[in-house]
Amino acid sequence: MKDVLRTVFGSVFGGHPDGIWAAPGRVNLIGEHTDYNDGFALPVALAQTTRLAARRRTDGRLRLHSAQAGGPVVDLAVADLVPGAVTTWAAYPAGVVWALGEAGHRIGGADLHFDSTVPTGAGLSSSAALECAVARAYDDLYGLGLGPPDLARLAQRAENAFAGVPCGIMDQMASACCVAGAALHLDVRAGSYEHVPFDPGAAGLRLLVIDTRVTHDLGDGAYAALRTGCEQACALLGLAALRDLSPDHLPRAERMLPARLRPLVRHVVTENARVAEAVAHLEAGRVAELGPILNSAHASLRDDYRISCAETDLAVDSAVAAGALGARITGGGFGGSVIALVAADRADAMGAAITAAFRAAGYQVPHLIPVTAASGARRIE
Ligand code: GLA
Fold first, then answer.
1. What residues have CB less than 8 Å from 92, skipping those under 6 apart?
2. What integer pLDDT is reported at residue 73 of this predicted model?
């Protein structure tokens, strides 16, 4: 892969890159739609990465090329970058360069060639991988000395303000801050995290991503509507964020809210509690105990938060019917991926059962991706 990157870089831009960087996609174990409620999440970085061959330029031009997008080089002037100016895939990398400048860092241009193994539209954070690879490379190319959480904040700023996608910070934190063999226990309000050991293989288990291939788009309004619903509930309850509502106070809070907001609040409050429960089990080495937590999270996301769809429900139901300890939709929702935790010796049979169920329903055959908790954005050469 590195040789291919170098060769393509040479044929697109001429000469050699200064280095090669990689940033992973992520899958979230538990803690969904909690990040923009100042809450908790527990993602892991995937082995699938966006790789970036990059070279610093001295003329202020930002030149971008992607193996997946193809097409001609996107050639931009760093000084002219403004939100809304770029609307294609190039908005993500250009947005990071803009965000660095906006934050007062002294940066200039670069030649960037990308190649990625992170599936797009699958709820596995291909855009965060793209952003974090650029942030990490710029940090090195321009000697900025930024830490992983700084890179994540800049990447989120790029996505929110430049690409116009109203996401929280979980994906960028996962892509920037994860370490191999561990999940990232995020406390969004505190801006802090800790690494929690996550090694299902050592417990005779496997975690599988089932990419349903129903693509989702966080910019299409449904995600923003959920965020707005949570904000309205906070305003009515007099809270800074739903993170401040404890499970004990949930029944009372529900009585104070209109019917349409109650299920949203119920999901966020119970989901934050599920993160704490999952972390306690993982810290004690009880990986299998995640199973029932995944099942309750799916019920909550399907019935209360209502972000599941026929394909993701089928993946969860057929995984559980085939012996998974637990399964749930993961990521932003409205399609995308499901995760299933299963005994290693049942994993193949489970995968076959899910595929058969999709065929029988006339859906596209899903992609099955085994998860190994990998490390965050890094220089690889
Ligand atoms: C998307 C967003 C994240 C988070 C999840 C839901 O992945 O980018 O910030 O809100 O949805 O947990």
1. 127, 130, 131, 134, 158, 159, 163
2. 98
In the DSSP assignment, the letter for residue 180 is T
Q: Is residue 65 in contact with ligand 1, taking CB distance under 6 Å?
A: no
167 lines ligand 1 (CB under 6 A): yes
Residue 2 has pLDDT above 90, yes or no: no
Domain ranges in the chain?
A: 2-197
Ligand 1 centroid – CA 68 distance (Å): 23
The answer to whether 21 and 54 have CB atoms below 8 angstroms apart is: yes
pLDDT at position 186 over 80: yes
Q: Which of 140, 171, 303, 348 is catalytic?
A: 171
- For residue 52, the CA-to-ligand 1 centroid distance in Å is 24
Residue 254 has pLDDT above 80, yes or no: yes
CATH fold of the domain at 2-197: Ribosomal Protein S5; domain 2 (3.30.230)
Closest ligand 1 atom number to CA of residue 32: 12
Edge to edge, the sheet with strand 205-211 lists 326-330, 337-343, 205-211, 367-370
Q: Give the nearest ligand 1 atom to 168 CA.
A: 9
CA distance 133 to 51: 7
Ligand 1 atom closest to residue 31's alpha carbon, by position in its atom list: 12
Whether the model pTM is above 0.90: yes
Using alpha carbons, select from 363, 362, 67, 68 the residue that is nearest to residue 210: 363
Residue type, 378: R
pLDDT digits (tens, 9 = 90+) for 255-294: 999 999 999 999 999 999 999 999 999 999 999 999 999 9
Provide the pLDDT for residue 277. 98
Query: What is the structure's pLDDT at 378?
Result: 98
Question: Does residue 248 carry a catalytic annotation?
Answer: no
Structure tokens, 11: 């044929």
